[in-house]
Amino acid sequence: MKKIKATEITQNAISLIGAQWMLVTAGTPDAYNTMTANWGGIGFLWNKPVAYIFIRPNRHTYQYIEQQEKLTLSFMGETYRQALKICGTQSGRDIDKMKEAGLSPWITENGNIAIADADLVIECRKLYSDMIRPENFLDSAPIDTWYGEDDPMHRLYIVEITGVWARN
């Protein structure tokens, strides 16, 4: 992997996140979890390159994100679609997702866990988080579509991009 600047990310963020999906990974080398996500974005806020992601509190990875200051976003090629499905449908409470998905961890130079098999890794530091609140929706259609009575709302995380690595 080659370290690049955030401004050198050439992939379309909507395609990366919405179509290819990403693995959100948080924790320490001794205890971490990863999960598939396809809600989020990449942009510029507060004079910083940022990403934003949404995680439900009932996801196992949530506790690791809450406990740590940093997390990583790993983007995989299409050959890893099955691995992404495993990481998105199975809980790290019940299985070793990395083993089941055939993935390998990679520890960044800053000591954060990412996915060694990724084509692109974005290392991030949390800047802001808040729960999505039903009363703040201006259009209630997403509530009806994405949240049932027993489904918790997502937590929004805005994270500063602190490092980017791309496969050569």
From TrEMBL:
What are the GO MF terms of this UniProt record? FMN binding; oxidoreductase activity, acting on the CH-NH group of donors, NAD or NADP as acceptor
Record's superkingdom? Bacteria
What the record says about family reads:
Belongs to the flavoredoxin family.
Q: What is the lineage of its organism?
A: Bacteria, Pseudomonadati, Verrucomicrobiota, Verrucomicrobiia, Verrucomicrobiales
- Which Pfam family, any one of them, does this sequence belong to? Flavin_Reduct
Which InterPro entries does this one have?
Flavin_Rdtase-like_dom, Flavoredoxin, Split_barrel_FMN-bd
Matches recorded under SUPFAM superfamilies: FMN-binding split barrel
Mind telling me what this protein is named? Answer: Fmn-binding split barrel
Domain Flavin reductase like residue range list: 19-167
